[in-house]
Automatic annotation (TrEMBL):
DNA-binding region: 26-45
Position of the signal peptide: none
Domain HTH tetR-type: 3-63
The keyword Transcription regulation belongs to this UniProt entry's keyword annotation: yes
Single GO term (MF): DNA-binding transcription factor activity
SUPFAM superfamilies xrefs: Homeodomain-like
Stored PANTHER family: HTH-TYPE TRANSCRIPTIONAL REGULATOR BETI (PTHR30055:SF234), HTH-TYPE TRANSCRIPTIONAL REGULATOR RUTR (PTHR30055)
Entry protein name: TetR family transcriptional regulator
Organism: Mycolicibacterium phocaicum
């Protein structure tokens, strides 16, 4: 029952934030759309930041499930990471308000106050290292993947702000993967 309520809240949030900017999405509106009491919503998600980070965590879980179901792409580690990130980016760019809300919440949330922030970072990093074939990542491998994550977020933000086109977004993600991941150790090619 708790998972059903949580899922309903996240689905309502996604639907509302797909239509309008996050600052126009009201918590009482989310509760009403999810069919839960406002107090229930706040028990699960004490703030809009918690709510959008929770939604991002849910999306990352689904992304990981999709990766496990698909055959790993061929090519270099950079090619494989680009494949995963570009597959994640396309639907995100089709929902700019929702993506902006999730990214802004993820980037502004204090990891000590919103536990899912660290979970998202670690999960994405682990997923990308696995795609690269790095079974026992060293400190440099982890740092390189963290740089890819930060760069990806920045490129997404630039695209959402209208600074670069969708084609430029893909090109820049691919270039970032190639440049940053060149020294990745232990990656299977």
């Amino acid at each position: 029952m708790q998972q059903q309520r949580r899922d309903a809240i996240l689905q309502a949030t996604a639907a509302l934030a797909a239509e309008k900017p996050a600052d126009q999405v009201q918590m009482n509106e989310v509760a009403r759309a999810a069919g839960v009491a406002l107090g229930t919503l706040y028990r699960y998600f004490p703030s809009k930041t918690h709510l959008f980070v929770g939604l991002m965590a849910d999306r990352v879980d689904k992304m990981q499930d999709g990766i496990h179901r698909r055959k790993a792409p061929a090519g270099t580690a950079a090619d494989r990471v680009f494949d995963v990130l570009s597959r994640a980016t396309r639907p995100m760019l089709r929902q700019p308000h929702l993506t902006a809300a999730m990214l802004n919440s993820l980037n502004t949330a204090d990891a000590t106050a919103v536990a899912e922030v660290g979970h998202i970072d670690r999960q994405v990093r682990s997923m990308l290292l696995t795609i690269c074939g790095v079974d026992d990542p060293g400190p440099q491998d982890i740092s390189l993947m963290r740089l890819v994550q930060h760069t990806w977020h920045g490129i997404l933000q630039s695209s959402l702000n209208g600074r670069i086109s969708a084609d430029e977004t893909e090109d820049e993600i691919q270039l970032a993967c190639r440049l940053i991941l060149a020294p990745l150790s232990g990656a299977s090619s």
